[in-house]
Amino acid sequence: MMPDPSEITALMGRHYLLMAFLVSLGALQIAVSTGGYRGMWLVPHRLAARWLGIALIVVGVAVFFLQPLWVEGPWAAGSVDADSATREWGTASWGELAGARNVNDIHGGLAGTAHATWFALGALGALAVSLSVGALTVRLSRRRSEHGQADEADGLDAMREHDFPSALRTSLEIAQKSWRQDVAESLVPDAYPAGLPAIWRRVRRR
User: Fold this and answer.
1) Which of 92, 148, 157, 187 would bridge with 96, disulfide CB 3.0–4.6 Å?
2) Does the pTM of the predicted model rise above 0.85?
3) pLDDT tens sequence across 5-17
C-alpha cells in the first residue's frame, strides 16, 4: 500500500531543500571566489573557495539522487517502468535507483510550486551562511595580516575586502553623505540666477 502522500511530500521536501542549499552554496562560492568578494568566502583562500564550491555542487546532487539507497522512502519497486502509486516504503536497490525519485505529485511528489519554494529557501539559507561565515573569514584574515584597507568602496565592491556588516555600514554612510551633498547643491542660490524666492514668487503668480 502506498504510504501517506503528506509523509512523502515532507520527506521529498527535506531532501530537495538540502540539495538546493548545497548547490546554491557551491554556486555562490564559485561566483564570489571568481569575483574576489572575500566577504562571502567560506575559506580564506580564493582557489580553495572555488574548489569547495565545485565539491558542494557535486555532493549536493549526488546525495539527493543516492539517498534512496540508505534512506527509507517510497522508492521500493521504483524502476523507470513502475507506477508511483505502486511504490513500497523502504530503501531502493541500485536497479531501482534510476526511477526512485519519479513520484507523481498526486501521490506525494513535489509539485512545481513546491520545487520553487524549497529552492528559494535553500538559496536564501546558502546566502545567509556565506555572509555569516564570510564575516568571520574576513576578520580572521585581517587579524593575521594586521591591516585592513580603509577604502571608500560601497555596494558589492565593498565585499572584496570587508564583511557584510562593515560593507553595509559603509554603503549607508556614503549614500547618506551623497544625498546630503546633492540636496545642498540643489538649494544653493548660485544654482538659480534669481534665487529660490524669486522662482517661488514667479510660480505663485502663474
Assistant:
1) 92
2) no
3) 888 899 999 999 9
